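Hi W.,

Here's what went into the run:
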Amino acid sequence: MLTIKNLTKSYGPQQILKGIDFQVNQGDVITLIGPSGSGKTTLLRTITTLEKGDGGTIDFAGVQGELAHLSKNDIRTIRQNVGFVFQNYNLFNNKTTLQNVTEGLVVAHKIPKAQAKTIALAALKKVGMADYVDHYPSQLSGGQAQRVGIARAIALKPQVIFFDEPTSALDPELVGEVLKVMRQLAEEGATMVVITHQMNFARNVANKVVFMADGQVVEAGSPTDIFDHPQVPRTQQFLAEILSNV
Amino acid sequence: MTTLALIYKFLIQILPAIQITLIISVASIILGGLLGVALTRAKLSPHWWWRAIANVYISVIRATPAIIMIFVVYYGLPFLIKGWFHVSIEGWNRMYFVIIALTLLFSAPVAEIFRSAYLAVPAGQKEAALMVGMSPWQAFSRITLPQTFVIALPNLANAIINLLKEGALTFTIGVVDMVAKAQMIVSNNSGGFAFETYGALALIYWVISLAIDKLVSLVESSFQKKRQAIQP
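Here's what came out:
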């Protein structure tokens, strides 16, 4: 469904992504793990065109082309077919909970207002935020805000939803409510790519785990492959470090 | 008559000229605001020459005292226009020259205010708008711009009050605004009651400034909950 080939990306002299091949199939729940600075976030941001890739190709939603030379239309098509959940929620501060979800439906996807409201309410209900439709982001807790962020993404019915460390900014006691929603989405068959440090989620919910380090995919496979039988020393070292901290 | 009664009497005499002051202020605010937005755009441009032009313009304008700007525009502009386009604008209503001068003066602080307010809106707001499929323009006009405006409001109010006060120099090129009217009253009284006359004038400016302040804080408080970030 989504294929990325040989993606490269540099900031100035520093190469962040050193030729990444990445594939997402319908119904996949992929977790991206790896040390900070390994390029996970940049990978997500480049695939979703928030950052411009230097090299590499994309094949997604009818768009086939070089990531460095996508037309405005191609970029729009890609963006309209992905959902993105941000680490810092990035809810629209000047919009209510309901408006945060309807905004993209009405403005970008040209869905009539009444219908957009129905879709938005269903999405908010799914994440348990239907009672907060008139609240502004400043009136929500981090966990609530992130659930609205997820509702905003799923309401658009994207082919794939990207999660960029969705629980990293949350207080520990709020992490659970967000992970629960994500787990529910996965069970319903949503296609998801998740950067996370929540190893339980990576192990129990994902069907595929990708370990990145230094701008490269070091190892990829099923959760069992990666967590129980990691082949590469770099992966073993990372897992040993992160699991010893728990 | 008591001082208060005199102040009241002069107030009533000066007040009709408020029309001129208001026309000049509102026109300068609108035109200067638009020019300021264009300058903001130039200052945030990825091309260095746009930024350079905007920076030079802003630093020159900010260093120009209002009275000099009014004189330069009033005496200089007809000369330039005649030289370039061979059109005489000397017969123009003098109010237009004041409006042009104040527009130039107002555009510089507005550009600075909008630029810093725009940069104060987290980049994630725009990114989130793009990721729900909005075009860059939709993201700007529906998400970033309203937040920029709210952040800019208090400073904008200050700039407007400054403009209002700079507009008190309008009389220097012979436009009969409130200040000119007050001067006439004083000279009609052979220099008498100057304190009461100018006191009345000061009172009017004070009330206008107060009204602007109040209006802005009302608008601000109605936006208050929309501009705060989320507590983690």
